[in-house]
Design brief:
It contains five helices and no strands. Helix 2 runs antiparallel to helix 3 and helix 2 packs parallel to helix 4. The chain is elongated. Helices cover 78% and strands 0% of the residues. It is mainly α and 101 residues long. The protein has one domain.
Length: 101
């Protein structure tokens, strides 16, 4: 990611997908299949958000790469974990400003 434009270079995301698939190829067809499912799961969810204008294309490519490394089942876990701390923070802020005030 560059500091000036906040862009994720294509060589990083595409290279990561290729490296993940090569590493997963060592596990045979189940490994490759898991990587492709992760790629579609991670990239697909973020592509929907991209299509709605919620994020940039680099985010889609990065999540597709993460999904390829993680595999299908673990991509769901990766997608669900980041909102949890944010939800906790939101509730804690609401509680401290509304209930405790």
């Amino acid at each position: 990611m560059t500091c000036v434009g906040a862009r994720i270079p294509n060589w990083l995301t595409y290279g990561s997908v290729v490296a993940a698939l090569a590493a997963r190829a060592l596990l045979g067809w189940p490994g490759i299949k898991g990587g492709l499912i992760g790629l579609l799961a991670g990239g697909g969810v973020f592509f929907l958000l991209f299509a709605l204008g919620g994020m940039g294309g680099g985010d889609v490519k990065l999540m597709a790469a993460v999904g390829t490394w993680a595999g299908g089942a673990q991509t769901v876990v990766v997608l669900l974990q980041p909102p949890l701390p944010a939800d906790f923070w939101q509730w804690a802020t609401w509680f401290s400003t509304t209930v405790c005030a």
